[in-house]
Amino acid sequence: MIVKVDQNNIHIYGYLYHGDGIRFLGEFSKIDGTYPEIEVYLHTYGGSVFDGNMIFNTLTTAKSQVNTNIIGVGASMGAILSQAGKVRRQVSNGFMMIHAATGGTYGTAKDHLSSANLLTEIEKQFIQLLVSKTGLKAKEVKKWLVGDNWFSAGQAKKEGLIDEIIDPLATLEIDIDDPESIGSEEVYNRFAASLKIKDSKPVATQNEPSQELKSKDVNMKKDVIRSLGLQNINGQSSDTAVISAIEEHINAKVNDYKTKYENERTARENLETAINAQRDAKIKAILDKAENVDKTITAKQRKDIYEPIGKNTGLEALEAVLGGLKPHKSITAQVGGKPSTVTAQDGWDWDKYQKENPKALEALKKDDPDAFAELFKAKFGVDYKE
């Protein structure tokens, strides 16, 4: 692609090669915002969709108002670029051509499917763009993506593809009656033969990428393949195949990181579960001793006070608190009355009291309600209620 800047005029000629998007962005940024309006003159038969999209996005997000002018042929990606203008113009003897994006893939069935999916998504973008620019319905613009669809200036204006028709900038030696019959490159060449820009030098014709550009493209692909360690592709592989390989590489890395994260999270949760189980076992052993052997706490105190201390504050805090306690006595024992039966008859259960000393069980309900409630629950499985 040839890019020429003349004050607030920028000219785009020829085939859009890989890398032209970045080169155009560099040239355009020099004038963007310097002028209130920038005129873009197009004479191209298309090229790289990705670079064309980069140029399109550059034009539509510019600080200056951008107007587009097809001065010869705006075919394929050139037609899409023409839609970036705030005001869209076409010379009266020029042509616009719209068709679906094309691409080739070398590789496996998966490679071909990836390429097909990519082309399908590009078609959806084209349809959405053409609907927004023309005001037509999707079903009306979809037909423009079947085969090559040529539009004279009058037809383009009728369909809403341009806003204005301007005077020709080139006089053709042979009029073009049927552009479809000769193809976009030939239409481009006929205009290029007589089309001149301000320095009076003919517009260069570029039908095929130069050997130098092809070599640079191959070397760039090789660098990417080598740096990422991509498999099953080489420098001669299509752009679609390389992009698909990069996407697969990135997805594989993401999935690998996800798997590692999940494994580490599971291991951490298992470790936490094991640590908590050990802690709970130690708390239980300490409280069993305090309640059943040392008699320093009751069952209710154990549940309401000391278990939360062990779980929330730690084993050391629990042991420190329990270490300062004295054996539990009932209120009757503390004021000098008769000791609680449960203290005198350690190890008795409900049935033993019922069989051997039911009166002591009745006295226990009054003298040591906590111990009575514990026996009751052990026997009947429910809390005792007055």
How does this structure look, described?
- By secondary structure, this protein is an alpha/beta fold.
- Among the domains are: about 1-100 and about 145-210, Alpha-Beta Complex (2-enoyl-CoA Hydratase, Chain A, domain 1); about 330-385, no CATH class.
- About 55% of the residues lie in helices and about 10% in strands.
- The chain is built from 17 helices and 8 strands.
- Strands 1, 2, 3, 4, 5, 6, 7 and 8 form an 8-stranded mixed beta sheet that branches.
- α15 (about 350-355) packs across α16.
- The termini are far apart.
- Mean pLDDT is about 80; it is low at about 195-210 and about 330-345.
**Low-confidence runs of at least 5 consecutive residues:** 197-208, 330-344
Profile the largest sheet: 8 strands, mixed
Q: What is the string of SSEs from the N terminus onward?
A: EEHEHEHEEHHEHEHHHHHHHHHHH
**Overall strand count:** 8
Which fold name corresponds to the CATH topology of the domain at 2-99 and 147-208?
A: 2-enoyl-CoA Hydratase, Chain A, domain 1
CATH superfamily of the domain at 2-99 and 147-208: 2-enoyl-CoA Hydratase, Chain A, domain 1
Shape annotation:
rod-shaped
How much β-strand is present in the residues?
5-15%
User: What's the overall average pLDDT, rounded?
Assistant: 80
- Percent range for helical residues? 40-55%
What would you call the structural class? alpha/beta
End-to-end gap: 96 Å
- Just name the CATH architecture of the domain at 2-99 and 147-208: Alpha-Beta Complex
State the helix count.
Answer: 17
Radius of gyration: 43 Å
CATH class descriptor of the domain at 2-99 and 147-208: Alpha Beta
